[in-house]
Design a protein that fits this description.
By secondary structure, this protein is of the alpha/beta class. Helices cover about 30% and strands about 30% of the residues. It is globular, with a radius of gyration of 17 Å. Bound molecules: S-adenosylmethionine. S-adenosylmethionine binds next to helix 2, strand 5 and helix 5.
């Protein structure tokens, strides 16, 4: 059984299961958008639209949780017949959650990755000729400091700024920026002005990731993107002069 005193499996709108955390009092995904759909439309598809023609893609997946963003990346890779080599680095504080994932009910789209979930539960990593996935059991704040100029893509998918503020501060995004390549892109479900300010004050440009059937999300990049509509941050700031990013 996946359910324990801290986690309960919950059905989300797209028919895939997510989980509820009693510790953070929050779901791991938007139950309204759906767990699988949220991973695909808010993280994997918009970032791969920009990066998928590279020979190798390095991804920082903050945080592993149920592993949807990493698994949705593999699903997208197979669906689109990509040839790129993919390396995913993912911190996760909750070691017992990772160990219990072989009991989680994943959507059928992930069925062919069962052996990958098992390897991650058992060894903390998976490797074959195309993929490397490493799950670091520990604090994301410490983990990201190990990398410099490495990541093409960052999936920023922590619990919300109100329940896990240390993974949304201006200082945290400064370390994230150092870990990224100069043309790297970051995806997040958060559209909060405080989040966008924390990114903007670190030199990121802010873009809207919108679609007809999901709630708006954010793409951030230090290089200019033409495929997304840019948020006019100076205008937002002038309309909200008291808005501040979170700080450590
Ligand atoms: C919203 S969930 C991640 C969902 C995940 N991306 C998925 O697709 O299933 C947030 C995760 O962050 C983890 N977490 C919280 N604080 C952390 C920290 N400081 N370092 C690493 N992981 C952390 C929680 O244990 C939880 O699994």
């Amino acid at each position: 059984m996946f359910n324990d005193e801290l986690h309960t499996m919950t059905l989300s709108e797209d028919g895939s299961y997510t989980a509820y955390s009693k510790e953070y009092e929050e779901h791991y995904h938007s139950t309204r958008d759906g767990a699988l759909k949220e991973s695909l439309v808010k993280h994997v598809e918009p970032t791969f639209k920009i990066k998928q023609n590279q020979d190798e893609i390095n991804i920082l997946d903050i945080c592993f949780g149920l592993g949807f963003n990493s698994l949705a990346t593999l699903y997208y890779y197979k669906k689109e017949s990509l040839k790129t080599k993919i390396n995913i680095y993912s911190p996760e504080l909750d070691a017992s959650l990772v160990k219990s994932l072989q009991n989680f009910t994943y959507p059928e789209e992930f069925e062919e990755f069962k052996h990958i979930v098992e390897a991650i539960c058992r060894d903390g990593f998976y490797k074959d000729e195309n993929f490397y996935i490493e799950v670091f059991l520990g604090d994301a704040r410490e983990y990201v400091k190990k990398f410099e100029n490495r990541f093409d893509i960052v999936y920023q998918d922590a619990f919300s700024p109100s329940s896990n503020p240390l993974l949304w501060t201006q200082e945290y995004f400064s370390d994230i920026k150092c870990s990224m390549k100069s043309d790297g892109v970051l995806s997040t479900y958060s559209i909060a002005l405080a989040t966008r300010l924390a990114l903007y004050e670190n030199g990121f440009s802010i873009y809207i990731n919108s679609g007809e059937d999901f709630r708006d999300a954010t793409i951030a990049s230090t290089s200019k993107l033409t495929t997304f509509k840019e948020v006019d941050m100076p205008h937002k700031i002038s309309c909200n002069p008291d808005a501040q990013p979170l700080r450590d």
